[in-house]
Amino acid sequence: MDIRQIGRAIRHALGVALRALWRFIHRFQLIRWAILLVLTLILVMSAYFTYEAKTVDMADIKSSLQTKTEIYDHKDNGVGSLYSQKGTYVSLEHISKNVQNAVISTEDRSFWTNPGFDIKGILRSVVSLIINRGSIAGGGSTLTQQLVKNTLLSQKQTFLRKGQEIFMAVQMNRVYTKSEILAMYLNNAYFGNGVWGVEDASELYFGKHASELSVGEGATLAAMLRNPSYYNPIDHMDNAISRRNLVLTLEVEAGHLTSAQADAAKQTTLTLNNNYNEDSTDKYPYYFDAVIEEAESKGFSENDLLNKGYKIYTSLDTNYQDALDQTWANDNNFQNDASDGTKVQASSVAIDPQTGGVRAIEGGRGTHVFLGYNYATQLHRSPGSTLKPLMVYTPALENGYHYDSELSDKKQSFGKNNYSPSNWNGVYQNTVPMYTALANSLNVPAVWLLNKIGVQKGVSSLKRFGITLEKKDQNLAAALGGVSTGVSPLTMARAYAAFANDGKMPQTHFIRKIVDATGTTVYQADTQSKQVMASSVAKEMTSMMMDTYNNGTGASAKPYGYTVAGKTGSTETPKEWNVNGDKDQWAVGYTPDVVVATWTGFAYTTKTHYLQTGDGGNVDSIFKSEMTNLLPETTQTQFNVTSASAKVAATTASSAGTSSGSSSGSVWSDIQDGIQDGVNTVKDKAQEWYNDVQGLFN
């Protein structure tokens, strides 16, 4: 069989197959069914899109673009606004025709006559859909569709999203006039360099109102809409001029300019003049982030917070915040960057110990990212020795020990695992008084004491302070902060507030109340405090922790002329690294007016990213600078206790002055001491029972 015979055979076979297929299709009317199926699908999709368009809150778009949520400080003074993708809203009458015509000529020439969509644009989208296999590359959208996309939908380009966009655009065209739609579009458009809206863009680039823009300036702003980062004149003047000239040509084609007018505008020089005043939101970025996060935790959505026109009354003290900002503005307070340029991080929070209101916050160093990571509120790092007062010394006082009780300071091992802590300075004594062990952050006495009172009492004490240890962390090493359970500066500030507030721990909060656009209070903060220890215990702890900054590990962090109580802490790098440095450094300090908790360290600790001992700035320099700047802004309330070391010195001096006295006097003194010890024992035992019972209800 030759090739021609084979070809005839194939054609015959194909003919037979096609005739059979046609008879099958004709017999079962498959074409009709296919048409019916397609029409049904179109009907269902149209019904779905129509329902979505009808049920969306279209009437709220204009008000949301015009409305900002206002933020107030602790004295009810306005300090800024929260907003999303909107600048200063102006009506169409206050927007130059030169901008309006340029935008319409470039983006949507049929704007004034189309029903919200353009058939030619849809056909281009269908072609794009086929070419890009289900994904629409962009283009083909009217101004109304773009406004719908920017205010109601995601930026994802799909067939489903395109269908929603078209039907919603039709609905928007019915709800609003063309002038209102154009005004909303121009007030919502992004013009680069962080500026939304034509009014703020006019001020940023040309130093004038949108109503005053010339033909060339209007064309320049319209040119940016295609790609703001590429066509804005601040960053790319040549690109901006080239695109401006193209827009002017398009305006001629659309009939908005004559050729002579366009040519004249092309010859003008673009003169930049920045007269834009940024919103004060940028002045308190981490605080505003924390406000949004807290509001979201109370059931408010981010979208509502940015668009519903709430009035949010916060605990912010701008004087406190400015004081912390001064410290953060001075790089000399911080360790040098790593060799690869990685910046050491730090965070701090200042709260009112009576109310729990967060007065100021520093969420990190470097460029702020809106709702990015906040090291002051979201950090989870080991607290080091700042855990000792909460887990060891407070429950020790509650279980019969006193500020001057002698603690073992011998080099020794504990428990079945022979846990062997070491003092950071390598020095050991036979015994040491409790206040000295705390002030100098000695490790062996702390572990010895926790072993004596029992780990579980320490764990229960921590829980009262708002810190719950994981099961694997419930051991003697926790006395030194060697735990995987991480804490944040906000957590530590809240815990230490109990010492400054007579044993009552407040609920920390950024927001005092939220009022909606109608004036109704829709949220009120819970400012109740919880008694976590007796007032006498809080006072005795304060007297010991005053020595931390007087003559202990925090002496170099003490602000000159002020008395501060608190604790410092650090976590070491792994021994196998063979480096002299820390992973984390902490300083927590307080007066009766304010509690400040500060942390520093690298975001990710490695062999090349750790806090080097003796390398300039550390937590001491940060904390000292903060408190030096901040404490003059407080009411400077004095402590009602003296430091433990001062009490001991006074007692020693008194004893030396009275000598030994008579033997009868000595006996009577011994009797008094015995009675007092008995009373103290009964009080401590009663306090212990009280805490145990209270724990059952917590």
Automatic annotation (TrEMBL):
Q: Which residues form the Penicillin-binding protein transpeptidase domain?
A: 348-624
Q: Where is the Glycosyl transferase family domain?
A: 82-249
Q: Which reaction does it catalyse?
A: Preferential cleavage: (Ac)2-L-Lys-D-Ala-|-D-Ala. Also transpeptidation of peptidyl-alanyl moieties that are N-acyl substituents of D-alanine; [GlcNAc-(1->4)-Mur2Ac(oyl-L-Ala-gamma-D-Glu-L-Lys-D-Ala-D-Ala)](n)-di-trans,octa-cis-undecaprenyl diphosphate + beta-D-GlcNAc-(1->4)-Mur2Ac(oyl-L-Ala-gamma-D-Glu-L-Lys-D-Ala-D-Ala)-di-trans,octa-cis-undecaprenyl diphosphate = [GlcNAc-(1->4)-Mur2Ac(oyl-L-Ala-gamma-D-Glu-L-Lys-D-Ala-D-Ala)](n+1)-di-trans,octa-cis-undecaprenyl diphosphate + di-trans,octa-cis-undecaprenyl diphosphate + H(+)
State if ATP-binding is listed as a keyword.
Answer: no
Q: Does the keyword Membrane apply?
A: yes
Q: Which Gene3D superfamilies match?
A: 6.20.370.110, Biosynthetic peptidoglycan transglycosylase-like, DD-peptidase/beta-lactamase superfamily
Query: Per UniProt, which keywords does this protein have?
Result: Carboxypeptidase, Cell membrane, Cell shape, Cell wall biogenesis/degradation, Glycosyltransferase, Hydrolase, Membrane, Multifunctional enzyme, Peptidoglycan synthesis, Protease, Transferase, Transmembrane, Transmembrane helix
Q: Name one GO biological process term.
A: peptidoglycan biosynthetic process
Q: Which residues cross the membrane?
A: 30-51
Q: Name one GO molecular function term.
A: serine-type D-Ala-D-Ala carboxypeptidase activity
What would be one Gene Ontology cellular-component term for the protein?
outer membrane-bounded periplasmic space
Q: Family assignment?
A: In the N-terminal section; belongs to the glycosyltransferase 51 family.
Q: What is this protein called?
A: Penicillin-binding protein
What organism does this protein naturally occur in? Lacticaseibacillus pantheris DSM 15945 = JCM 12539 = NBRC 106106
